[in-house]
UniProtKB/TrEMBL annotation:
Pathway stated in the Swiss-Prot or TrEMBL entry: Secondary metabolite metabolism; quinolate metabolism
Start and end residues of each Amidohydrolase-related domain: 4-328
Keyword Amino-acid biosynthesis: no
Gene Ontology CC: cytosol
Pfam families in UniProt: Amidohydro_2 (PF04909)
GO biological process, one term: secondary metabolic process
Keyword tags: Decarboxylase, Lyase, Metal-binding, Zinc
Protein name per its UniProtKB record: 2-amino-3-carboxymuconate-6-semialdehyde decarboxylase
GO molecular function: aminocarboxymuconate-semialdehyde decarboxylase activity; hydrolase activity; metal ion binding
Family statement drawn from the similarity comment of this UniProt entry: Belongs to the metallo-dependent hydrolases superfamily. ACMSD family.
InterPro entries: ACMSD (IPR032465), Amidohydro-rel (IPR006680), Metal_Hydrolase (IPR032466)
Subunit note: Monomer.
Principal EC category: lyase
Amino acid sequence: MTVIDVHAHVFPRLGRADGRVLADGGEPWLRVHGDGTGMMMSGDREYRPVEEGLWDPARRLADMDAAGVDVQAVSSTPLMFGYAAEPSRAADWCDLVNDRILAFCADAPDRLLPLCQVPLQDPALACEVATRAAAAGHRGVHIGNHVGDRNLDDPGIVDFLAHCARIGLPVLAHPWDMLGAGRMRGHMLPWLSGMPAETQLSILGLMLSGAFERIPASLRLCFCHGGGSLAFTLGRADNAWHRRDIVRADSPRPPSEYTDRFFVDSAVFDPRALRLLVEVMSADRVMLGTDYPFPLGEKEPGATIRACPGLDDAGRAKLLGGNADAFFAPAAVPAAEAAVDTAVDAATAGSAS
């Protein structure tokens, strides 16, 4: 059985001079101490202490071997998104980050799957960067779950997701820049409470806005952190859809009928929670995710899956690697969809000029 971790982060060795590609103050960048530790930096501000698995592929592969992980999908650390920057500058930054991620994964191309990032604040430009990255060898794209006050159901971001579907590029959506930060002071509450709320908000937004009706069904989309609070509250959303016309105004189907349009990772850390998640999503829609190498991640990759009650051997095999193998498999883009995408890109280029 191949064990594939779909949720693992990287911060390539980018110094402060590299950070100035994105911002004059040089942010973000990585300060490496030479003793196996480092610090993620935002200009002069220390953001988070980190260890060498975040930037050293040899250490990462050794950790994977020790944990029994065969393959990782490698995505940037959300601090690196750069969504607040001017779009063309952010595009240059994304190209730099994407090249470094490719170089990082080149040490073990059969075990490290590179995911690119894009300047999502400009969806048309994000499409260009994603297409370029896919041609260079990236196996998917990693995005934040919102850009400022624009959620994933924003028309421009929906266009970007449709573009990813047309070019066969899987999408990994990660919560970040959590809402309600002013009320979540201390105790890592933005991570403990904000992240699940952000993820649920993103998924419900796509469901209730009708966005899933406009995005090709071929899109391979995965939400990190187990889909946040969604599995526990989906019944509440369905009840509201059936009882209130303002809830169902833009969605022809109740929320629970869209669970076949996306995947979630297994990072819920409790076998009982995972059992509910599998019951809601099905064993075909959940994939191993550890949040490596951060301290809130799963320290024994797959332990929650292996301990999940009611999950048989076939189901465990799907969650541990089978679903991810299919999710990241190179996709043949239908000729009709490729033709549509060419036309869309041409129209976008014409309007830009």
